[in-house]
Write a structure and sequence with these properties.
The chain has 464 residues and is α/β, with parallel strands linked by helices. It folds into 3 domains: 12-135, Gyrase A, domain 2, CATH 3.30.1360; 141-219 and 395-433, tRNA modification GTPase MnmE domain 2 (Four Helix Bundle (Hemerythrin (Met), subunit A), Up-down Bundle); 229-385, Rossmann fold, CATH 3.40.50.300. 43% of the residues lie in helices and 17% in strands. The protein has a 7-stranded mixed β-sheet with strand order 3-4-5-6-2-1-7. Strands 9-10-8-11-12-13 form a 6-stranded mixed β-sheet, sandwiched between helices. A hairpin with a 2-residue loop joins strand 9 and strand 10 (277-283). The two termini are 17 Å apart. The mean pLDDT is 83.
Amino acid sequence: MVRLPLLEDSPIVALATPAGVSGVAVLRLSGAAGMVDKLLPLLQRPDGSPLGRHHLPPRRMQRVSFMDEGEILDTMLAVFFPAPHSFTGEEMVELHGHGAPVVVRRILALLHQQGIRAAGAGEFSLRACRNGKMNLVQAEAMMQLLHSSSLVVAREASRQMGGSLSNHIFKLRDRLLEALIHMEAMVDFAEEEIDPADGQQLNRRLTEVVSGLQRLQDTSLLGRQLSQGVHLVIAGRPNVGKSSLFNRLVGEEKAIVTPIAGTTRDMNDAQLTIRGIPVCLVDTAGLRESVDMVEQIGVSRSRQRLTTADGILWLLDASQGISQEDMEELSKHGQEPGLLVWNKRDCQPAQWTPPPLAHIPWPVVTLSCRTGEGVEDLLHAIATLLAPLPREGGGILMAERHRQAVELALQETRLAQEMLVRSGPLEIASLHCRAALAALEEMVGVVSNEDILQGIFSQFCIGK
């Protein structure tokens, strides 16, 4: 991992648009006071006169010429963002020129000659954090937005960029700080009689923190599903159409389909988006007893995958009805989220309805993988099955680092509260409170761990 020059404030530049031929290429520059003065010798006004700082009013695009040994290299638009009213909190300039790779490379070379070095991955965002323009959670949300696999993830990332998660963490941090101050005051005056009301007030504060952290921790599963995709498993007996449904939903012939039962021996999976929700769809081997050793392995893996699924699409053959094998397998998974999907609807009379299964509380969908009839109904049912995003509250824990921080803070706060309830040493309770506080502060970047910062920002793209 390339380590960023975290403490430098030297001027930096990076291409903020994708490399290659394009209509427009945007170069971003940032640096401490005086950065613009390094750039000005390379620019001219459209009439050929020198460009001065006063010719770059804040946040207004100006047409300029980028000069190379007295010749115009490119005609572009320049916009100046003065400190501290910029993305990084430093002086910033954006140059919008033509996306010719040879021209962009020459411009970068001329800027390097002026002492404006190439930015590292994520260095603009890191400087924004260093200068208080955003906190660490917001920076990570921005990266989540850039790598969004679905609109649902993008919208949640946008909310977190606006502070939905970090504001909640700061409120809990303030409550913990109040509790710690209260606790240490009680320690300082331990020889005096403590008002019972003080202990009750302290306990209420810790209870509020525990409750807020628990609500956040409860979003961990949903956060994992959003960032990695909801694991949706297609299951059922052999030859009911599982691979046909898999291919229909994926939109390509990815799984082999034959009339021979037991064709699928291993699992196929694909990443797709269903109604804006990222899904990892898994096609499994047909569930049945078999003497074939390879098929036995496939069936065993299928059953194992069902135990970790976020949702199950249990496929049934409308032309054959439900079998005893289906009933036995369904009884093992009926309490998990799932849908009963009757395939081969086109093989039945128009008035046919699926038989009721009172002991399986799953919604029922009928369709035909051959004709596509009912597939839209299935997509709607899947979207309803998967947990919707909350529109209010403290946000969702989508990053593993956040999940670990909240888990540690919750554990330490509970230990502090337990010590308080048991009338244990307040000094020990305050240590637990401090540990919880440190976990939350490190999460939002109030305290900086250099290795954590390096790990986070090295994953950003150049120019962000």
